[in-house]
Amino acid sequence: MTLLRRRPGALPWLLLAPGLGWLLVFFAIPLYYMAKVSLQQGSVDTGYELTWNFGVYPDAISDFSEQFVRSFVYGGAATLLALLIAYPLAYAIAFHGGRWRNAMLLAVIAPFFTTYLIRTLSWQTILDDASPVVDFLKTIGAIPSDGRVLATSGSVIAAITYNFLPFMILPLYASLERIDKRMLEAAYDLYSSRRAVMHKVVIPLSAPGIVAGTLLTFIPSVGDFINAELLGTPRQSMIGNVIQSRYLEVTDYPTAAALSFILMAIILVMVGVWARIAGTEALMGAEAR
Amino acid sequence: MEAGTVARDQLRVEPERRPALLRAGRRLLDGSVKVYAGLAIAYLLAPIAVIIAFSFNDTRSRFNFVWQGFTLEHWKEPFAVPSLGEALQNSISIAVLSTIVATALGTLMALALVRYQFRGRGSVNFFIFLPLASPEVVLGASLLSLFLSFGVATGFGTILIAHVMFNLSFVVVTVRSRLIGFDRNLEEAAQDLGANAYQTFLRVTLPLIAPGVIAGALLAFALSIDDFVITNFNAGSTVTFPLFVYGAARVSIPPQVNVLATMIFLATLALMLLTVWQQRRAERMAEVRPGDA
Predict the structure, then answer these.
(1) Considering just the CA atoms, what is the radius of gyration of chain B in Å?
(2) Do the beta carbons of residue A80 and residue A127 sit within 8 Å?
(3) CA of B291, closest CA in chain A: separation in Å?
(4) CA distances in angstroms from B126 to A213, A262, B188, listed in the order given
(5) CB of B137 within 8 A of CB of A243?
């Protein structure tokens, strides 16, 4: 208290200190140790030694370029699909929800009330070779009569899209809901077509939601490995699968640490570029609300 | 006020004067938007329906994937698999403890960030945003690197540390967004009336920011009880509910998993509805107050 009386400016830092300390010790400092682990050589049995082996980075990239590319392709495809599915839904809830609005919002977050893994496993049931859904897809000719959905890129991308869809819907809804309806009326009064209202009023005003939604979907999608593991085969494996197996099964810590760093660096660069294009205000602002 | 209302009424009449064909087209579009919304929501709820349905499946094989017939057997003995009960207990303990710690620390941080202008605020905001922008696999792996480097044995304690870490940023973001419209005059009024700093905080500030804090806590609890990736890295031999499901997915998933998942779903749903109802009531009470004065 005497400290506060002498330096009132210290108060916000006192409030921040415990939480910031926790993040420093258990988020920032671990990144430093991960960097150190990546530059070590050795094995679990003989012990590790810091040899500043920077060669692990190019090696990791060339050995696992396939999984890296696949992660970003799957993540990108899932994000795009989620945007296409979520935008009309968020629009419908915000503008045509009526008395169903709250019920619909509850339905959007309902998947969060069940365990992520079990949700993904239930897609195994839905997309099983003998399931009615797959039969239907065969009937309409979407897949060949001897084809399957499980164990393909399609099932992995579909499940990733499903799992992160609420992260896309909620920010989109938040930004659409804030649009002043009188803006739309004004546009119609000025003889704007429905199409033009959508393109020149609704979509630009919901840009913060689009930015926040795509980021919140893309980041977990790229790093995910559960969907590829439960609904795919090793031919669908993503960089997350490699990191987790190198760390926990093969115990090749240096490679796993290097891969984690490369993944994080690529994502941060992409987020930075996206933020530049869309404006940091849109990024941080939408995320804050 | 009067003039504005009239003008808007006229506006609302405007579309009706459009040609009939256009009106029909517009109605069709509105209708299809609603149909689309219904389909999208069915897509969101389909796996949940499957989970609940298969908790009643009279399965005889090792895998609970194909419908065999209706039974209440599994609901009668939800804890028939002993390790499953223990896993759920671990999950709940970790979720409760990490929620309490993360909510307390996160609320203090949010208060500091919204209410004070200080040098470095932007950097702190960015630093808090970073864990949200990192894939879970990276958060889990780096924390394990720390524990490995110091020879810390992983287990219940390290899971707890990890959960507080990833929950903190979410709590800060949630509470901060609710704090932005906070009326500081109320606190000054309390102090004018002789309340000291602690009384002001406990009797005025805390009740006012409570909805935001509760929202943050609910989010933290949901994230914690559901987390698999970060937990998997730092669990050692401790098993949580998601870890149990992951292990079982490779061999055989007992239908009790579906029963417990359904229970968690219903409990969370009830908690959510209760919170919404309580907040609505609080809002209605807040609306009445200025009129009373």
Answers:
(1) 25
(2) no
(3) 27
(4) 18, 20, 31
(5) yes
Mutate to test the interface with B, among A125, A135, A169, A182 (most CBs of B within 10 A): A125
Q: Which residues contact B173 (CB under 8 A, 6 or more apart)?
A: A287, A288, B128, B132
φ/ψ of residue B99, rounded to 5: -65, -45
With beta carbons under 8 A apart, name residues in chain A contacting B246. Answer: 117
Distance CA(B234)–CA(B143), nearest Å, equals 8
- With vertex at residue B130, the alpha carbon angle to CA B124 and CA B219, rounded to the nearest 5 degrees, is 95
Interface test with B, best of A24, A25, A26 (most B CBs within 10 A): A26
Question: How sure is the predictor about B262, in pLDDT bands with cuts at 50, 70 and 90?
Answer: very high
Q: Do the Cβ atoms of A130 and B63 come closer than 8 Å?
A: no
Tokens of A239: 């960089």
Q: Cα separation of B25 and A195, whole Å? A: 13
A-chain residues within 8 Å CB-CB of B43?
A: 85, 162
> How many angstroms away from the CA of A63 is the closest CA of chain B?
19
CA-to-CA separations, A32 to A20, B142, B274, in angstroms, rounded: 17, 8, 43
All domains of chain A, ordered by start, with CATH?
64-288 (1.10.3720.10)
How many Cβ atoms from other residues are within 10 Å of residue A135's Cβ?
Answer: 11
Strand ranges, E, within chain B: none
Residue B170: list chain A partners with CB under 8 A. Answer: none
Q: Is A102 left (phi over 0), alpha (psi -120 to 50) or beta?
A: alpha
Residue B117 identity (one-letter amino acid): Q
Substitution target in B43, B145, B239, B260 with the highest count of A β-carbons within 10 Å is B145
Model pLDDT for residues A16-59, shown as the tens digit of each residue: 999 999 999 999 999 999 999 899 888 777 778 888 888 889 99
Interchain CB distance below 8 Å, B47 and A126: yes
- How far, rounded to the nearest angstrom, does the alpha carbon of residue B50 sit from its chain's CA centroid? 22
Q: Which residues on chain B are in Cβ contact (under 8 Å) with A117? A: 228, 242, 245-246, 249
pLDDT at A73: 96
Closest partner residue to B168 among A19, A106, A126, by Cβ? A19
Q: Which three-class secondary structure state does DSSP give residue A39?
A: coil
- Mean pLDDT score of chain A: 86
Name the pTM for this structure: 0.84
B21 vs B189, residue with greater confidence: B189
What residues pair up with A47 in beta bridges, in sequence order?
A43
- Answer yes or no: do B261 and A118 touch at CB < 8 A: yes
- At A163, which amino acid appears? N
User: Residue B135 is encoded by which pair of tokens?
Assistant: 């894939």
CA nearest to B162, candidates B214, B114, B95, B73: B95
> Could you read off the pLDDT of B98-112 as tens digits, one per residue?
999 999 999 999 999
